[in-house]
Amino acid sequence: MMRFLNLLLMIMVFCLYSKVSLSETVTENVTEGFAGILQGYRIDLGLSVKDAQFNVRDNANSNGAGDLAILGTMTDDAQATLLLSLGSPYTYFNDSEFGYYFEFGASSYNMDTQLVSVNGIKTEEKLGTSVSGKYLYLTPVLFFNFGDKYLKLNKHHSLKLGLGAGIGYLEAHGDIIFTNSPLQEHHVVDIDTLGLSIAMLIDYRYNQWLLRLSLAAPGTEKNNLSYEMTDAALNIGYTFMF
Question: The pTM is what?
Fold first, then answer.
């Protein structure tokens, strides 16, 4: 728990000062003091529909990826929740449409349903297993922008496509059945460590309204197995700019 809180604090501090760089940060006003530190940050408020999965993969059989590499999957039903998030400034490379920002997320989870294949059809079943824990990630995302850069412009519209990799933290405790293995092994999960996280996004904005599809996947390895949490979200809402 203390490792989780310490990493969360470090990420918050890093995000707060991430605007200090050699490239150009696109903002419209320069202010001083605390407001100046937050210049370019944004708060998204609205509705978020999330779907998460916890996968265990066999590192010795991961060349083909896909289902053959996945030994077992815990899943959770899609849930609609309140969207309230703080976004870091968009930073562009000189006058190009390429830029970057930092994607941050943190959550807890408790899953008791597994994804199984019945006659070639994937379905969700309760097998008496469960996995719970926490995860967070900080990922620099490189994006290409179509449309306006300035979010405060009248009749602003933009589409951003992004991909990134960064640091992730995954805590997971519980058990899972390897439903994709011929032996159907029962496996105890006990993970609490840092690892790699990837992120992908499609972000459309009109004026200060947003429609956003994102995927984040923090993961780690232990004893020739890979553990990963895939966090997919569809966000609809309104953006408040600093």
Answer: 0.78
